[in-house]
Specification:
This is GH92 family glycosyl hydrolase. Keywords: Hydrolase, Signal. InterPro entries: 6-hairpin_glycosidase_sf (IPR008928), GH-type_carb-bd (IPR014718), GH92_a_mannosidase_put (IPR005887), GH92_N (IPR041371), Glyco_hydro_92 (IPR012939), PNGase (IPR050883). The chain has 20 helices and 38 strands. Helix 5 crosses helix 19. It starts with a helix and ends in a 41-residue tail after the last strand. Helix content is 26%, strand content 21%. The longest helix has 21 residues. The protein is globular, with a radius of gyration of 26 Å. It is α+β, with helices and mostly antiparallel strands.
Length: 806
Amino acid sequence: MRVLRTVACLCLLAAPLAAQRSSTYADVDPFIGTGAEGHTFPGASLPFGMVQLSPDTQIRPVKQSYKWAAGYRYSDTTILGFSHTHFSGAGHSDLGDVLVQPISGDVRLDPGDIDKPESGYRSRFQHKTEEAHPGYYAVTLDDYNVRAELTATTRVGVHRYTFPAGKPAHLLIDLRSSIYNYPGKVLWSSLRIRHEGDGSTTLTGMRETRGWAPARQLFFAMRFSAPVTGTHLYNREDQPILYRGFKTPGDTPEDTQAIEGRGIVAAVDFASAQKLIVKVAISPVSEANALANMQAEVPAFDFDAVRTQAQQRWQDVLSILRVDADEPTRKTLATALYHSLLAPSIAMDANGDYRGPDHAVHHADGFNFVSSLSLWDTYRAEQPLMTLIEPPRVTSDLVRSMLASQQQSPFGILPVWQFAGIETWCMIGYHAVPILADAIMKGMDKPGPDTPGFDANAALDAMVASADYRPYGHIGEYIDKGYIPIDTGAPGSHDESVSQTIEYAFDDWTIAQVARKLGRNDIADRFTKRAGYWRNVFNTKDGFAEPRLADGSYRKPFDPAKAGAGSGFTEGNAWQYSWYQPQDEQGLIQLLGGDIALVDKLDKMFDQHVDPKQYADVEDISGLIGQYIHGNEPSHHLAYLYSYAGQPWRTDERLQQIISSQYQPTPDGLVGNDDLGQMSAWLLFSEMGFYPVAPGSNQYVIGRPFARDIDLQLGNGKHLHIVASQLIDENKYVQSVMLNGKPIDRVYLTHDELMAGGTLRFEMGQEPNRKWAVSPAARPYSMSSPGSSDQQPRRVKAPRSRHLWR
């Protein structure tokens, strides 16, 4: 079981901090982010686990499902049941596979009305009866007086239900139930009852759904610790789960031991007054593999043993972080680390089988195949965090998974937004590219004691194949013209043209960096030129990135606050995207007219009064500070840009403003969806005092720390000790920085410096030190900085236009 060895490595590396295990573990609050727009779930999972066993509180029609993207929302008062797959903080909804609801008394086959819980199988609950820790969740279902407890291994969810005495005990299994629900989502499902030779009963089944990921298949196996006294199988295909009536076709159980259809519901009966343990194993490949996963990971019916194992695994992994700070800071940091370790998820069986983007079954030879890749988000900070805190084997697994997906893709390109091995084509850019580039630039392709590494040249070939795939995302126009016009193609087809141009340019820069490192200078030269294409949508007359027409002119009229359909931007506007050239912020400063111009424009963005109605019709916009939107990723590096203009103390001020307003240790403590760890990774980096503005540069821009003392165990086993001397509320400015006793008079640290370990000391003070790290030589990497090997001219001349499909 390769995944167990991967996490076991983390456990061994964490040994020096064993004394802090319980305190770090205890500081985690899985309810953080389950309210407002955080989209996290409180249920049980392991680090990078394939199972996320958690309560679902509502099933909504597709147009209303966004708020329930994780299945659970803290403000709800009823629970439908417990399903086995969930996203942690995604900006889209899906999953919620194999819903199980324990029932005492009469069995109802539909969820019922949320305002009348007794009309269906849902149950009321109270938060005071909930308990959640990493790897464990419990709640009392008030309408059934059933105590439900959940824990998990990598591929198996384990339930324990304590039923009241004197009432019949049942389990309701609903294969219709799905997050992102709509009629016809379940293409097919099946359920079989198997009576074993020892008198026990096994349920196996599958379902295929056409949700966010098309034609996704999931198989499962279910076993019970108590004898089954009756089974009732229903095909309620004509009864959508959102229907609230009764006495409809499908109310009568079929007298069979196997059933297929689009509306499968089952009720399983047990003797009353008992504790019941239920094991549910899942597989992307087959029922046989699900049974094998169960036998490999949970052969016995010992709930407490599985819970103890899950707790120990989380204690080991979380103990890499030790924080000396006030309780709110400890809770938010510990929970951020927890959330950052939930994805990407293992997406293969214990024997190495997995389903790829071609929907065929493949075998992972020597690596763990992982999926749940929210790449538009996680390339910015989540994956750079993993390169710091995890052994190289874990990043190698991610890289090899993406390279396998590229080989198995019908289009020959890297993943865009993939889960369960299936591509969704969600969001823009080809952001698997900077993740591969960042790993190669940090030397993680090299074999080591616990990792085979990966082929960097093969990775570069995959990166180039994705960046040159002309049919995807108007790349053909981008290559031909040097930007994507907003007025070509079908109406609305180019609505994200500015964001696409800007994001492609950053991805292209990372390709150039890798190619230069590998000595493939023809590729490096070509993509260095493309890395400057962000300039081709930057209007120097008003200092904004703007939609540009095919004839080369900028579209008029222009409103930098316009977002949504027709704006040219993805989940934002010109106020957020005009700063998105992490590879060349000095180039931006030049175009704006100098350092002061950049600082003034940043201040105008942060301080601007914004009518909340401006973004009322734009999905995923939250956490506003002026026109800064912390709940969405294109803004995440903006506070650090003051340091590029020689005013690092302004970065200190903005970080204080962001962290104090955007993160709290409460259910609504995440202002935007966590995006599979990106929001959490931003917080971890920023509270430690540095942030990877440009992944692939091997630099981290220095900000300011927010804890008195942090000890972080790195992926190579060394420790980075971060000390904030004189840190009190009034002392919010960095006075000086020392690394292992040597002064750092620049506003960046290198990856090698951090991975060497030692002590990073910040001296804090009440007033800005306007002399620390302010010279041009002290600033972070930028393409346009003097002496840069890939320095660009002020304006890139694009090739002459030609038709995309010529």
